[in-house]
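hiii so um. not sure if this is the right channel but i have a protein structure encoded as tokens and i wanna go backwards to a sequence. like what aa goes where. can anyone help
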């Protein structure tokens, strides 16, 4: 599988409530190939759930969505979910009272398909009448691989969004603060420590208050996006966000887990050193996303955060402060370290998605639901699902080419504009490699700000150095076992990580922790994943 040059993520953020219970549609006739609901020219009524970002405006205000519902001859009553989907989903699926369609990133998982067998529609035959989905499968065969279960059935469709870079994570330091204090950009963990101490003690932002700087901040966890786990690259560990959120990575053809690796222990010891010195935000394990972003955006021209991670500077720090920050190369763990230096490689996760749209087996007019899905997978619609409607968000240049427009509000960054306007990365869509689209400023900045990571990422062989989690379909037995084991392992890991960073103690407790992690099923999961990794590599 060729290494792709592509785009994020986003991290699904939380906040609202379910609207009303949503049963399968009660109009239309599954035997009617034209999807008529009984009256000539009338629309088929469907129900749907969409899992969206809290910033995203109501679906009724999305021009592109109204257009494709019209084109498909359907009228969809949407429930818009922005919080606690995992909990709400469990209740909904257990009741069997489900909508016709689900939309969102891995909105219904392979494990859900196994647990609630018969609740979801195998779309294999319906896709024969969906030329846009077929085109995606033909042009990007890996999307069919992602969509197809081991038994050949297709319950959820993949997405492909083409433009994202090879990594979700960029590492930022306030260059203005470095210049103010006459400091060089750090290249090792020890140099970073010294710089952060200077940020804390020497009024780095120059506002006369030596106590308002936060030298280092992140969202609090150890897995997934934008957190210190990427520092493990300074000891040769190559992460990949679709599995490294639970510690897994590949090294020399072997699946491993950094949560019980001695290099992780070294990282936690370093973070505890930073925390004890007052160099990490004291609220790092308690603040929410809104507070995290607000702190990084400072006060006017006065920045508050010195070092952190993010998608792009304008999103992390806002348009006003973004010019103060520089993206960085990976930091070596020490000046004496002579091994490989790596970074997180997230191309699979960013450019592809699994189960982004799912149909209920209870849907009474499956052909109408598939007509809607087919419209959704038009490449010209795909760019609107991702970036917003043609007109306010995208310019149609009239010659088969398009351009992403800047936000109408000049104070808003392009990333916020995108997430406000449309489903964005959470949607189900296909953007063909042949469509001519000029990207917005933020995406151009992402590519530019990824330059310091280029050498490290160039060393990654995406076919063998990355666990292909996006493309793997586990058996029901393995899926269930891994899910239970991961829950137990991560409960232990999250609790100990926060404690060890803030209070220390990892050296004394490490051996017992490793044994407890093994008892929780970590080694069993590594064994299972190795089997699927070997199977994947053998077919390359």
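sure thing!! here u go:
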């Amino acid at each position: 599988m060729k290494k792709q040059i592509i785009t994020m993520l986003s991290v699904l953020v939380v906040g609202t409530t379910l609207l009303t219970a949503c049963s399968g549609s009660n109009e239309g006739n599954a035997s009617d190939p034209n999807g008529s609901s009984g009256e000539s020219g009338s629309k088929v009524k469907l129900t749907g759930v969409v899992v969206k970002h809290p910033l995203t405006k109501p679906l009724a205000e999305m021009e592109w969505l109204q257009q494709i519902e019209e084109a498909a001859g359907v009228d969809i009553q949407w429930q818009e979910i922005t919080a606690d989907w995992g909990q709400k989903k469990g209740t909904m699926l257990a009741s069997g009272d489900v909508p016709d369609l689900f939309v969102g990133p891995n909105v219904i998982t392979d494990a859900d398909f196994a647990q609630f067998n018969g609740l979801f529609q195998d779309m294999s035959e319906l896709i024969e009448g969906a030329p846009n989905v077929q085109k995606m499968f033909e042009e990007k065969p890996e999307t069919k691989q992602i969509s197809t279960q081991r038994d050949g059935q297709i319950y959820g469709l993949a997405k492909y969004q083409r433009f994202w870079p090879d990594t979700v994570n960029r590492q930022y330091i306030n260059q203005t603060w470095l210049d103010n204090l006459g400091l060089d950009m750090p290249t090792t963990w020890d140099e970073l420590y010294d710089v952060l101490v200077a940020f804390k003690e020497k009024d780095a932002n120059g506002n006369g208050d030596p106590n308002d700087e936060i030298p280092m901040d992140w969202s609090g966890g150890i897995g997934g996006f934008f957190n210190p786990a990427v520092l493990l690259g300074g000891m040769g560990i190559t992460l990949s966000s679709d599995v490294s959120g639970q510690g897994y990575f590949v090294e020399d053809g072997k699946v491993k887990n950094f949560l019980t690796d001695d290099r992780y222990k070294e990282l936690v010891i370093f973070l505890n050193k930073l925390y004890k010195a007052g160099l990490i935000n004291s609220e790092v394990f308690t603040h929410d996303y809104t507070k995290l972003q607000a702190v990084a955006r400072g006060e006017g021209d006065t920045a508050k955060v010195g070092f952190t991670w993010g998608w792009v500077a304008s999103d992390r720090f806002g348009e006003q402060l973004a010019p103060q920050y520089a993206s960085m190369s990976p930091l070596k763990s020490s000046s004496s370290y002579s091994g490989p230096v790596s970074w997180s490689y997230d191309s699979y996760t960013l450019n592809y998605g699994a189960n982004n749209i799912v149909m209920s087996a209870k849907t009474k007019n499956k052909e109408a639901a598939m007509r809607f899905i087919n419209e959704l997978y038009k490449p010209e619609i795909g760019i609107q699902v991702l970036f917003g409607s043609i007109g306010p968000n995208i310019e149609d240049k009239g010659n088969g080419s398009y351009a992403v427009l800047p936000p109408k509000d000049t104070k808003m960054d392009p990333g916020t504009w995108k997430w406000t306007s449309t489903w964005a990365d959470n949607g189900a869509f296909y953007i063909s490699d042949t469509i001519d689209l000029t990207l917005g400023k933020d995406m151009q900045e992402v590519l530019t700000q990824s330059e310091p990571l280029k050498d490290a990422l160039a060393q990654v062989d995406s076919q063998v150095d990355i666990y292909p989690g996006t493309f793997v379909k586990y058996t029901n037995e393995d899926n269930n076992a891994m899910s239970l084991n991961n829950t137990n392992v991560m409960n232990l890991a999250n609790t100990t990580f926060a404690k060890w960073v803030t209070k220390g103690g990892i050296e004394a407790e490490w051996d017992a922790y490793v044994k407890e992690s093994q008892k929780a099923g970590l080694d069993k999961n590594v064994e299972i994943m190795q089997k699927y990794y070997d199977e994947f590599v053998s077919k390359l």
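oh and The chain has two domains: 44-164+349-433, 168-344+440-540.
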